[in-house]
Amino acid sequence: MDFGELVKRFSPYLKRLSNKVIIPSRAIGQDDLYQEMLYHLWERWKQGEFEDKNDGYIRGSCYFHLKNYLRRYTEKVNLISLDEPFGEEGTTIKDIIPDHAAPFDVRVDDALFIQQMKAKELTRREKDVIELLAQGDTLRDIGKRLGISHVRVLKIRENISGKFARRLQG
């Protein structure tokens, strides 16, 4: 069987299936699910797995692949909102790291994004600044507490913002 014929035959089913599934996250859409099932078909077709199988088997294979894909995917995804408060003080990420250049949608593929940023990608000085910002200190107050100028604190905050933006884009 030619792969084009396989896609033509199962494409309506795959589109209906991708539209029926409840997606637990905004980070993935129906088109993504459809493409994932097409990829599954392609991989199985290359291996010759569908040579002697009936349509019910192939549809079931796509269905179970999709269910497993969603299960694995939702275990890894964690969406972080710029406006949703975290911590005891109710501070938001937008309060800590304002991005005046352009708004961006924060979609993250692991549950420990902020902790990983703090642990791996922020310098000790950046960690100090972000903690003091989270406490509500002004740039001048932070500068006085750390023994640096408020302009330097502003630069450090911009560096943190840049690191977050690069991490979210990459």
From TrEMBL:
InterPro entries: RNA_pol_sigma_r2 (IPR013325), Sig_transdc_resp-reg_C-effctor (IPR016032), Tscrpt_reg_LuxR_C (IPR000792), WH-like_DNA-bd_sf (IPR036388). GO terms for biological process: DNA-templated transcription initiation. Residues 121-163 form the HTH luxR-type domain. Pfam families: GerE. One of its GO terms (molecular function) is DNA binding. This is HTH luxR-type domain-containing protein.
